[in-house]
Each structure stands twice: as C-alpha cells, then as structure tokens.
Amino acid sequence: MVVCIFSFFFMTIKKLLWLFPLATVLCACPFESTVPLAAAPEEPVDSSLLGYWYGIVKDGSDFFGIEALDITQQSDSVYAITRYGKAVKGDIILPDTAYFTGYVSYIGDQRYMNIEGFVIIPVQRRNKPTEYKKEKIYYLSALERRHDTLSVKTITENFSVRKAYKRPEELKQAVIELFSQQKNIFDDLYSMSYRKIIKPQPPKPM
Asked: Distance between CA 53 and CA 40 in Å, rounded?
C-alpha cells in the first residue's frame, strides 16, 4: 500500500513513477524492493482486511494524504488493492487512483503486506529515442487492525544502508536485525490509519 507517505510515496525524480505522482514534490520515499519479505503467498486471505478503508488524517488536512484503500480478495491468499489518493500537477491537485496486488507474511507476531506494483524506468540509448522499461517492485507495510481501524506503516527508503536485496530471506533478516536494535524503520509520512466505511457509490445519472 507509505514520505522527505503508503514522503508516499516520494523524492527528487530518480525514476518515472506513474504509480506515485506525489514523488516529485516530497523528499523521501517508501522502500522499493525487487524482492518481497516472503517469496510466495502462504497466508490465507483474512476477511477482516477486506472492505473500503477511509484515511484518517491527523492534522485536519488531506493535501498529501491517501484518501482510501479498497481491498478485495483476488485469490485464496492474494488481495487486490485499489488506492484512491491525490496527484499534484503544478498548482493543481487531481484525483489519483493506483492498483496493486498484495499478500501477507509475518515476522514474529507482526503482520506485513507485500504490495506488488510496477515502475516505469526510462532507458537512454545513444542516438535513439528514450525507451521505457516496466519493472516489478514491492512496497512493504506493517499492518495492525483493531475493530474498524486499520493502521498501515510503510518501510522507509532509508531503513537500511543497503539499497538492494537479492533474496527475500536477506531482506527479512535485515528487518529482524533492525527491530532487535529498536530502530524505527517506518516512514511517518507514509504511515496512516484507516477506518472501515461503506464504499461510496457513484451518483446515479439523472
């Protein structure tokens, strides 16, 4: 699902992020990994995570906030996640919708969502037009659900001095070690709480 938010995702442009338009105006980002925390889905879908979750904005302003997450079941162990947020284009704030899949894994008692998305990376070729390559990436968020509230804390870009991991086991061990050192690995800007509500329906045509 977050940031220098879930800065959301955020930073000076290193890549063309069509999934996270806020990246161009914020100075930090969530961690983008080429591997998830768990190599494959194993945990069955938790029906209590399904539904329409509306973002709770603490400071009374939702300028940078994610507005809502619509989580549905894609398979026995995979979730389909639609994020409704905002994109900043110049001085204009526009609605922004992004689509992901995700699956749950655990580190100890802590539940994580491995959120699968894609980025488009420009490839410069000499004397040729720029081409664009689509790459799969993962965002990693800790989840806590209490009653009708879902808290999402996204691992920050700078959680580790190492920027790339080749195997899920390596990434998982890094998270375990940093937790054992009581270090905060989450991005405050991309961490939010959501309250489950009835999904708004579009108005019927007159």
From this structure: 25
For tokens 């110049």, the residue is 90
**How buried is 4 (Cβ within 10 angstroms: 0-12 exposed, 13-18 middle, 19+ buried)?**
middle
Give residue 29's pLDDT: 73
HSE, side-chain direction, 13 A CA sphere, residue 46: 14
Q: Confirm whether pTM is higher than 0.90.
A: no
Give the whole-angstrom CA distance, residue 156 versus residue 5.
9
Q: In which element (H, E) is residue 118 found?
A: strand 110-125
Instruction: Encode pLDDT of 34-89 as tens digits.
Output: 999 999 999 999 999 999 999 876 555 555 556 799 999 999 999 999 998 876 66
Whole-angstrom Cα Rg for the chain = 17
Residue 101 CB-density burial (10 A; 0-12 exposed, 13-18 middle, 19+ buried): middle
Residue labelled with tokens 């800065």: 7
Coil/strand/helix, residue 63: coil
Amino acid at 106: Y
Phi-psi region of 132 (alpha: psi -120 to 50; beta: other; left: phi over 0): beta
The CA-CA-CA angle for residues 124, 126, 132, to 5°, reads 25
